[in-house]
Amino acid sequence: MKPLLIGGEWVTTSHGMKNVNPSDIGDVIDIYAQAGRAETQTAIEAASQAATAWGMSNLQQRHDILHRIGVEILSRKEELGALLAREEGKTLQEGIGEVMRAAQIFLYFASEALRQKGDVFASTRSGIGIEITREPVGVVGIIAPWNFPIAIPAWKIAPALCYGNTVVFKPAELVPGCAWALADILHRSGLPKGVFNLVIGPGSVVGQAILDDPRVNAISFTGSQSTGARVANASVPFLRRIQLEMGGKNPLVVLDDADLDVAVECAVDGSFFSTGQRCTASSRLIVTEGIHARFVSGVVDRLATLRVGHALDKATDIGPVVDANQLSQDLDYIAIARSQGGHLRFGGELVRRETEGHFLAPALIVETSPDMRINREEVFGPVASVIRVKDYDAALHVANDTEFGLSAGICTTSLKHAVDFKRKAQAGMVMVNVPTAGVDYHVPFGGRKASSYGPREQGTYASEFFSVVKTSYTSA
């Protein structure tokens, strides 16, 4: 049984959880120790005890540690990518790509550790100097989702450590393997004891213990809206910092003047790759009348070329859904869309392979209207709906007609419409002739409305959450 990491020591418990391969449910990857409330509180105490010294640590020390972490992750990309594909269901190629991104994030923040800066101001009063500096927040609780089991933890943990914070990390229960491998790398990187702690367990126990503890100064969370609301409500009494990423219902607008091949590839990539299990996935394809028939036919033809199968099979284009519960949710939404008048143009059925897994053919649902549940609620699977609209103005209106605001895309050759869409799309990230899913690691990530709350993740903007500003006055 793989242990927890608490206070710089590997800790076993009496309870363990199985890590099951969604491509082959008979394949148990390993068993991981399950933390309870007591172990979580011990981890928080360890992080609290280590916070002062780590917050005052030398910048070169932070750089060297983060750099070592990034280098080791990169050197093991095939091994870790295979583990990721095996436990989460991404294809092997996607898994290796995600591992490389995690490495790049750590290397980026290794450099940022040496670039921490402040400002010097003249005072309105003679003989007084003013300095603006940043300091660590303290103990940061990190609660990560299952769909990017190494990249999302990386883009939370790396800046937390870079800016001098200590960490209590709770990964999703479905993907403990990548979390444990990452913790092992951090443990051997030279981090002082207690600076990083790994607690694996159910959100109702481990997550709640993190929420209930006043020693946790900040929480960075990615997950569902309902859980995000719980994080927010629990944090208000402590006046702690919160950073919430809670999903999307992302539109991809396709105009009559779009390059058809580009539009089809953007739609298929954004909607169905990574099994559609991305918060930035293009779940609503909003298509104007003149190109609608050709676009739908093009997407269907492209989907017909894709193979659904075992994530480790190099011939696989789309891996399994992550588990039986998510598969059931995907199938329920397909049935609901059909019951409300949508037409299942392609896929949507279970796929049989040599191993027993959660395989679902990518589903394309046409003839839908903006008010249908399939266009209002996040499915989080290989399911996309098509909404036919009259023109650009109607497309923009439908694109913004959602409580979410994470990512929005448009396919067009019109500079006028591209510029207008970038300005008026109510989303934190806007894509023109590129998929809505797929972002760089050195720039801000986050949305608007119900998708996000708090400062942005990634890039230099991460400092807004993981550090606090201090203004100091000195009399000469």
Beta strand count: 22
Q: Could you say how many structural domains there are in total?
A: 2
At CATH level 3, the topology of the largest domain is: Aldehyde Dehydrogenase, Chain A, domain 1
- Tell me what the CATH architecture of the largest domain is: 3-Layer(aba) Sandwich
CATH superfamily descriptor of the largest domain: Aldehyde Dehydrogenase, Chain A, domain 1
Structural class: alpha/beta
Q: Helical stretch count?
A: 14
Radius of gyration: 23 Å
Average pLDDT figure:
98
How are strands sequenced across the largest beta sheet? 14-15-16-13-12-18-19
From the spread of the alpha carbons, the general shape counts as globular
Bin the helical content.
Answer: 25-40%
Query: Which runs of at least 5 residues are low in confidence (pLDDT < 50)?
Result: none
**Main CATH class of the largest domain:** Alpha Beta
| Oligomeric state, counting identical vs distinct chains | single chain
Strand content: 15-25%
Q: Distance N terminus to C terminus?
A: 61 Å
Major sheet characteristics? 7 strands, mixed
